[in-house]
Amino acid sequence: MMRVMHRACFVAIAAMSVVAHPAALAQTLPALDTARVLAALANEVRETHAPGASIAIVIGDRIVFAAAIGTTSVETGQPMSPQTLVRIGSVTKSFTGITAALMAHAGDVDLDAPVSRYARGLHPSIGDRSLNALLGHAAGLTNEAATDGLHDDAALGARVRGWKSEHVFAPVGDVYSYSSPGYWLAGYVLEQAGKRPYADLVRERLLAPLGMTRSTFRPTMAMTYPLALDHRVTGDSARVLRPFQDDVTTWPSGSLFSSAVEMARLAIALMNDGRIDGKQVLPSAVVSRVLARVAPLPGNDCSYSFGLSTCTRGDATTVGHYGFRVGSGAVFTMIPAKRIAVVVLSNRNGGIMRKTEQAVLDMLAPVAAPSSAAATIAKKPVSRAMRDAVAGVYVSGADTIRLTVQADSLVYQYGRETQRAMLADSVTVQVFDAGGAVAQEFAIVRGAKSGSVYLHDGLSAYGRVKQRARKQ
To answer: In this structure, what are the phi and psi dihedrals at residue 387, rounded to the nearest 5 degrees?
Structure first.
């Protein structure tokens, strides 16, 4: 391993003045303290031992600040820049979702139709899902992470055509459960409907109109531009990941290469009714559709569709996504009502620079303090019968959770891990670490169609498959 050395620091200023159109907007925004932004980015890079990171900030209809720190590779010391390509992980889902919305607007797909209408050879339990269900993580499909795999365009179709009922754990529309494979399937459906390989389809329909000329799914194209290599950070040391991980079958969920400045162009178009550089590049109706709030997620104040998560942050509404990969991380966050956006990319495993994101939002969109009159929700007493009712085995794909009643509490088991848990109220299960602190919470939700019981961690749902005997 090579110790991380931040020898290289590159800062590029795209435009230092706050956007002046409209003038009223500029007057209502606090001044952007670029020194504080750089300090926040440098501190987080130092704390996380990331090799490098880049940032772009949008106000109104332009990039007002772009910068980078660190290196694209701990072995070469090549400086990172705001134009350096980084793999953006699950932020890629927004490109799949928006492409689907564009194709629906053009009449190429019906988002509510079974995907078997466009993609032949799918198992019946897979083909009866709709694009809307897939893009909103409501298709009842299991989740799995991207790994290394095949590199030929045909591999995407071969993979999803090989799925059978084991990839389904819930009825369509029953419960929200995050599923990257759902986006792999959506990408295949779109390429079949568009009669173009997925990577080419997204480039032609979305990347090219946005002017994202270097952004690409293809590693052999990305390597012809300045490219940040993926890194694995362990402790305070980082190493380049080899071989370079790639799998064409997972491209639609998390494999786009892009830069901070090119990602900022997507934010500009979405926050300005589809316009950028004085041109209408996305139909206004498509922008309205992908930014519309849909059904809320269990256990939090967010909703999800078209690869974008919409959440309440104090008195503001944020729209965006985070990207987490084995060698990189990404932040893409907008506040459309204030036309503010921040993009932060990093080339370390799971490098989601939340502190830097928060520093920018605190400057440009400070959250109003909660009312002191806000009511405190009291926990309801929990009976033994209620504990018995929640006990059981909960499954999603290969993941299994067991809850067993023991005296006045619960025992939580995941794999070989066993922890104390309790039913905090009628709808919340808390899991405790060895020190007695709450390590995880699950919401208890009922399926919208089946009425089945699920444990939900805010991202994934686990369906109960059978009741467990009560320990004596």
So the answer is: -65, -40
* CA distances for 466 relative to 382, 385, 401, angstroms: 22, 17, 11
Q: Please give the biggest Cα pair distance in the chain.
A: 71
pLDDT tens per residue across span 119-146: 999 999 999 999 999 999 999 999 987 7
Going by C-beta distance under 8 Å and a sequence separation of 6 or more, which residues neighbour residue 87? 230, 254, 255, 256, 257, 323, 325, 327, 328
Rg (CA), the chain: 23
Q: Which of 117, 274, 294, 258 is nearest to 190 (CA)?
A: 117
The backbone torsions φ and ψ at residue 49, rounded to the nearest 5 degrees and listed phi first, read 60, 30
- Summarised one tens digit per residue, pLDDT across range 49-70 is 999 999 999 999 999 999 999 9
Torsion of CA 17, 278, 214, 309, to 10 degrees: 80
Count CB-CB contacts under 10 A for residue 223: 14
Q: What is the pTM of this model?
A: 0.90
Tokens found for residue 172: 């369509």
In the chain, the domains with their CATH numbers are 384-466 (2.40.128)
